[in-house]
User: Fold these one by one.
Assistant:
Number 1:
Amino acid sequence: QVQLVESGGGLVQAGGSLRLSCAASGRTFRNYAMGWFRQAPGKEREFVAAINWSGGRTYSAEFVKGRFTISRDNAANTVYLQMNSLKPEDTAVYYCAGDRDPYRAGPKASFEYEYWGRGTLVTVSS
């Protein structure tokens, strides 16, 4: 049974930083791309960033480029999202997701992901 558990969310002032972690278990982590999505109150879930199975390629939404960085530690079965220069509009529940198929580049569409964590809340105050 695949499990994804996010941590690291919290309350931070605008301009601050947080690092989210997602610990995975239940399958061979290093074979699958991972993604981060977020959902703000009253809005649809949106793509934030993805990383391919080896960690050699990353993809980010335009609105986080230059501020957020996705990375992974395959030895620790963990994917990270380093978030810098946070803005109030970054306030959302952030979800970690595991790709449906192995050895892919890192999809941006949520339907490509089979496994999801429960999310961690990030609140950025102005």
Note: The radius of gyration is 13 Å.
Number 2:
Amino acid sequence: QGQLVDSGGGLVQAGGSLRLSCAASGRTFSSYAMGWFRRSPGKAREFVASISWSGGSTYYTDSVKGRFSISRDNAKNTVYLQMNSLKPEDTAVYYCAAVSTCTYCSGSYYLDYEFDYWGQGTQVTVSS
């Protein structure tokens, strides 16, 4: 039980912004670290950002640092990814994910096998 539903993707011009949302249902994800990954055509899925259960720690892949911001609202069981200054190379399907194997853990998570709940993905297309 429990699922993640990604939303907020779309088509945007380079330099624009989007905010992705990941709504959790069926169980409480507030005690889990959460993350965002993406997969571009012809490429492997890659880590984008993650956030600790409390929101006190965040981690980003180098290519999005300073442009993307991950946050969470545990009262709403929702995680967000604010994406600014978007580039064509950010075009991908974005997936949110959760680490349910450890509750209230403070470690950093960025390897996809550490995440065991996944959303269905939302397409982000950035035109040049």
Note: The chain has a mean pLDDT of 95.
Number 3:
Amino acid sequence: QLQLAESGGGLVQPGGSLRLSCKTSGFTLRYYPIGWFRQAPGKEREGVSCISVGGGTTKYADFVKGRFTISRDTALDTVYLEMNTLEPEDTAVYYCAAGFRGTSGCERGAPAYNFWGQGTQVTVSS
């Protein structure tokens, strides 16, 4: 069973920063496109960002452009989501997900992803 695990969430003040990490057990993350999603209470899950297998393609939702950066460290087999200038509206559970092995590019829609982590809570509040 392929498993992903997110970490790095927490409580931060508006304007602050957090870095989320996505790691895996049971498979090598580097061969999969990875997406970050979030779900706030009472709202639908939404795609935040994604990164292709080689890291050459990244995509962002309009509401995080210029504030969030997705990256992957092949040596550590980890994908990161650097979140800056956080706003209360960013409060949500954040999930990473792995797409289909060998897929070129990446997509922000959930149907493109096959394996999901359990999520990490991000709370932005003063």
Note: Residues 60 and 68 are 8 Å apart (CA to CA).
